[in-house]
Design brief:
209 residues; mainly alpha; two-stranded parallel ribbon; 10 helices
């Protein structure tokens, strides 16, 4: 099984075609790029937070340090793309996606760490799946950029998942399945906002595009 097939199997559902059609429209590009930049920045912040919270876990420190650097490089690359296209990077309201996933996080350790790592794996896996699904519908420059991110995003997914399994010390299939169900519900349910990780566009959102 290749990396993308593994990721799709891990996710349990693919991005709805309605989301891909909306994302491919020229008028959606500014929203897509702006939110993508925010996602890269948040990913770096999440990695740094884990480094500060779990200072005694050397494997986590090394993997999260590299991940944070890569995400910030991606952030800079998205900003450069936006600037070249005459787009301005600005504030954006957060999507429901990450917050929806975090509602199921346990409050005591080590459960909290395991859940946060599993969520990280799902976010990175979904990003990878969407980059691959989007690329054929985008202009050459943006398609090339998104394809260039597949390898690193796929590695981030693997790093998060491996850390979760290592620190659990026991099978975590039940936690993975728990968050898989939440993640699929967020991706497949109707969404009134268009974001990089938003769900199926509502009729009102599609009509307004």
């Amino acid at each position: 099984m290749d990396a993308l097939s593994e990721i799709k199997d891990f996710l349990g559902c693919e991005t709805p075609q309605e989301w891909l059609e909306l994302a491919a429209k020229p008028e959606s590009q500014l929203i897509l790029l702006t939110d993508h930049a925010h996602c890269e920045k948040k990913a770096a912040s999440t990695a740094m937070t884990l480094m500060f919270r779990y200072v005694d876990r050397s494997d986590l420190l090394n993997k999260m340090s590299r991940l944070a650097r890569e995400e910030l490089i991606h952030f800079e690359q998205v900003l450069a793309l936006m600037e070249a296209r005459g787009h301005r990077y600005d504030h954006m309201s957060p999507a429901r996606y990450a917050g929806g996933l975090r509602t199921g996080v346990r409050t005591s350790e080590p459960g909290r760490l395991i859940d946060v790592l599993v969520i990280g794996a799902f976010i990175e896996a979904r990003s990878c799946e969407r980059f691959a699904a989007l690329a054929p519908s985008l202009d050459d420059e943006l398609a090339k950029f998104y394809r260039s991110l597949l390898k690193s995003e796929g590695r981030h997914y693997q790093d998060y998942l491996q850390l979760a399994r290592d620190y659990a010390g026991e099978p975590i299939d039940d936690r993975i399945e728990y968050f898989r169900q939440i993640e699929c519900e967020l991706i497949l349910a109707e969404d009134d906002e268009f974001r990089f990780h938003s769900g199926r566009p509502s009729a009102a959102l599609t009509a307004a595009a």
